[in-house]
Amino acid sequence: MEANSSQLGFVLHDVARLLRKRFEQHARNLDLTRSQWQVLTQLARNEGIRQSALAELLEIEPITLSRSVGRLEALGVVERRPHPSDRRVWLLHLAPAARPKLAEVHAVGDITRGEALAGVSEADRVHLLNTLQILKTNLTAVCDAPVAKQEGAGSA
Q1: Which neighbouring-strand residues pair with 81?
Q2: Cβ contacts of residue 92 below 8 Å, gap of 6+?
Q3: Which of 53, 65, 95, 132 has CA atoms 20 to 30 A from the CA of 44?
Q4: What is the reported pTM?
Q5: pLDDT tens across 10-52, in order?
Q6: 76 CB contacts (<8 Å, ≥6 apart)?
């Protein structure tokens, strides 16, 4: 099969959408919404993060995260702690009750990834992940740079 790089964005988008859809099908019995488990999994990777920084990381509005954190706090899985030197800032931590929920989410993720990677050899899996990491590195670098003006752009 010939590589057609013009399809890259479409295929990546479709794969990501289908992974989310299948994960959600498996996760229906976890008693958390997709946004809530996203908050928990990012918080597990960034324990003690400022609430505003977590909103940026999740690419959501701070008020949206605040509502989600409030619900997770009510469920007893997230704790808001005051910043030691800035009383306007909240630091987010996982409560002990979050650990079993995270284990359930990780198990569902394992099942979903297993379904997605069925028939893909270990070598191809490693190559795919390495290639995606390179794409991420490339895009991260250029997203921080100004966009070059395209020749003929804006002219009729």
Answers
A1: 91
A2: 43, 48, 49, 50, 51, 54, 69, 78, 79, 80, 81
A3: 132
A4: 0.75
A5: 999 999 999 999 998 998 888 888 889 899 999 999 999 999 9
A6: 95, 97
